[in-house]
Design goal:
Layout lengths: L1 E4 L14 E2 L40 E4 L2 E6 L11 E6 L6 E6 L10 E11 L10 E8 L5 E8 L12 E9 L8 E8 H4 L3 E10 L12 H10 L3 E4 L3 H4 L22 E2 L5 E2 L5 H11 L2 E6 L3 E2 L8 E2 L6 H15 L5 H8 L10 E4 L7 H18 L4 E4 L16 E8 L1 H6 L7 H5 L5 E9 L25 H15 L5 E4 L5 E3 L10 E3 L7 E2 L1 H11 L4 E2 L2 E3 L7 E8 L4 E8 L8 E4 L3
Parallel strand pairs: 1-31, 2-13, 13-16, 16-19, 19-20, 20-21, 21-22, 22-23, 24-25
Antiparallel strand pairs: 1-28, 3-6, 4-5, 5-12, 6-11, 7-10, 7-12, 8-9, 8-11, 14-15, 17-18, 25-26, 27-29, 29-30
Helix pairs in contact: 5-6, 5-7, 10-11
The structure holds alpha-L-arabinofuranose.
The site of alpha-L-arabinofuranose has 12 residues, from loops.
């Protein structure tokens, strides 16, 4: 096959085509990109002890050291947001070392560097004997006697465990050498000779390794780097289903994710575990700034899922005002100047400059509520556009699936595809004539979630049930990237239509898999992170793309089994030709670059 590149007829490529979809699923937030190493740091909610509802507070992750009893207490709230704390009762006859340890998120990565430790403690007046001189914190192996780092916090007159009020303690653990694995725990212990018979309370126990770009309360260093390395241009957050909530009250509430951690209550996430909200709106926006990605902000659109059986819920048409007001406040927080209420709050939180925000998505997968998005979208669209005319708004449903929703010019439609490889091949040209076929001149497309989910087989349709059937693709493989790659070539060829694309889900902690396949799998051990074939495909595509498309003609006329796209980078005069062979035989081809 001869591919002839035509120097004429160039179109600008879509600058943001390759991006990142993120939501807290499969512990990709807590226990994932959020670098906090302590599991269940404030006893907010469970996965282990309370596998069913109502995700009650638990001691998940904590174990006693020596002669102590650990239990939950509601009698000594740390704050309004964190009312449940851990009580530690030390036996009257205790000897040696006493305290507790936390196993982290299925382990703790230990590598050279500085770990920031913080915790709150309080005593029980009636039960304190007042002889406490120090507390010991350390990082230790679960398998050997190794202690990787250790620090003694001396009690002083100004700072000690008081029975009148909570005291915050902060220190650092300096690790000199890497542990051979992540089978390590964080210990907080006392000398029993000083505390036998005492009762202490603890909460907000935190351990932060060095983070991506050294942000306090930031992103796991290696996972942040992986996002950067792909060449990611946008970051869609916070969901996905996790934006919507299992009920209206359990939705992602942006304003509850702000400010000091002691004021963040967290929420029941949509993926079977509690979200601390330590990874909040500010953290997402700062991560976007640090990587240099466009934030694509998903805003709550008045629709919540209800997987617990009662059905989904939409705000009624005449009750949408609070939903809009909430969005406008959120946008003011992100982009308002410091003379505004929310802009001023952002400044107080350390970011006086407004964040750059150009894309807002109204909801997620609202095709699941055809009867209500038809009024929710137009209402929210006009309300947001009136206040922020320069924002590009994204609709999460369009005229597929029996919809009758007219999108105004300039809107982008977010479409999701978890499919068979054959689907992606068959739809390579889906966007070639899409404008004419849908009779729209100015609606863009965002392939907001996609992956090869299942191989082609005898199954009549995609099977989303768990555990996956034999045909399910649990990790991306060569077959995946042939399908995904061909579809992305189709996107590259139609930059006036397809503006953005993001594989989903992106990150997965292999100790808690709610959805696979995923782009990147990881554990607590930074050396075990796996970038999938789909990751490498996108990285290759993102880094090998010009500023303009180059039309290609070929001697045979047909795609399949070869599929291609060509672009030119006008700044450096480099031509990129991407070719995929989806067949099982070698195909000879030549590329002729027209002289210009
Ligand atoms: O990516 C996993 C889920 O798939 C997302 O939360 C949702 O938008 C889609 O159904």
């Amino acid at each position: 096959i001869d591919l002839n590149l035509d120097a004429d007829g160039r179109n600008e490529t879509a600058p943001l085509l390759y991006g990142w979809m993120f939501e807290d699923i499969s512990h990709s937030g807590d226990g994932g990109i959020y670098a906090e190493a302590i599991q269940n740091r404030a006893f907010q909610g469970s996965t282990r002890d309370n596998p069913g509802l109502p995700f009650g507070p638990s001691l998940d992750g904590y174990y006693p050291v020596g002669n102590v009893t650990l239990r939950l207490s509601r009698m000594q709230p740390l704050s309004e947001a964190l009312p449940v704390v851990m009580e530690m009762e030390i036996g009257g006859l205790a000897e040696g070392e006493v305290g507790f340890f936390n196993e982290g998120w299925w382990g703790i990565n230990v590598e050279p560097g500085t770990y920031n430790v913080s915790f709150y403690a309080k005593g029980n007046g009636a039960r304190m004997n007042g002889t406490l001189s120090s507390v010991n914190v350390s990082l230790r192996s679960n398998l050997t006697d190794d202690t990787w780092a250790e620090q003694t916090i001396e009690m002083t007159e100004d700072k000690n465990i008081s029975y009148f009020s909570w005291t915050q303690f902060e220190t650092q653990l300096v690790v000199e050498e890497s542990a051979p694995n992540s089978n390590n725990s964080f210990y907080l212990t006392f000398n029993a000779s000083e505390v036998a018979g005492d009762v202490f309370y603890f909460s907000l126990i935190s351990l932060f390794p060095e983070t991506y770009k050294n942000r306090p309360n930031g992103i796991r260093r290696d996972l942040g780097q992986i996002v950067e390395d792909l060449g990611t241009t946008f970051f869609r957050f916070p969901g996905g289903n996790n934006l919507e909530g299992e009920s209206i009250d359990q939705r992602w509430k942006w304003d509850k994710t702000l400010g000091p951690l002691i004021d963040r209550a967290g929420r029941v996430g949509n993926w079977g575990y509690y979200n601390t909200d330590g990874l909040g709106l500010m953290e997402y926006l700062l991560f976007c700034e640090d990587v240099g990605m466009e934030p694509v902000l998903g805003v709550y659109s008045g629709y919540s899922l209800d997987n617990y059986g009662a059905g989904d819920t939409s705000f009624p048409e005449d009750a949408m005002r609070p939903v809009l007001e909430d969005i406008l406040n959120e946008l003011e927080f992100i982009t308002g100047n410091t003379s505004t209420y929310w802009g001023n709050y952002r400044a107080e939180l350390g970011h006086p400059e407004p964040f750059e925000l150009n894309f807002v998505e109204i909801g997620n997968e609202d095709w699941f509520s055809p009867s209500s998005y038809n009024y929710r979208f137009p209402y929210l669209y006009s309300g947001i556009k009136d206040a922020y005319p320069n924002l590009t708004l994204i609709a999460s449903a369009y005229n597929e699936r029996d919809y009758n929703l007219t999108l105004p010019p300039g809107v982008i439609w977010d479409t999701h595809h978890y499919e068979l490889p054959s689907y992606f091949l068959q739809n390579f040209d889906f966007y070639d004539n899409w404008r004419e076929e849908t009779n729209n001149s100015d609606v863009g497309v965002f392939i907001g979630e996609y992956s090869v989910f299942q191989i082609d087989s005898t199954l009549p349709e995609l099977n989303f049930s768990r555990p996956p059937p034999i045909e399910h693709v649990s990790s991306p493989r060569l077959l995946s990237i042939i399908g995904e790659g061909v579809y992305l070539l189709g996107a590259e060829r139609n930059p006036d239509v397809v503006r953005m694309a993001g594989y989903a889900p992106s990150f997965c902690n292999l100790n808690s898999v709610q959805w696979d396949p995923d782009l990147v799998d990881f554990t607590a051990n930074y050396n075990e992170t796996v970038r999938s074939t789909s990751y490498f495909l996108q990285q290759l595509f993102a880094h090998s793309r010009g500023t303009h498309t180059l039309p290609v003609t070929n001697s045979e006329g047909e795609f399949n089994p070869l599929w291609w796209s060509a672009t030119i980078d006008e700044d450096v005069n480099a031509v990129y030709v991407k070719v995929i062979n989806s067949g099982n035989a070698t195909v000879d081809f030549s590329v002729n670059v027209g002289a210009e």
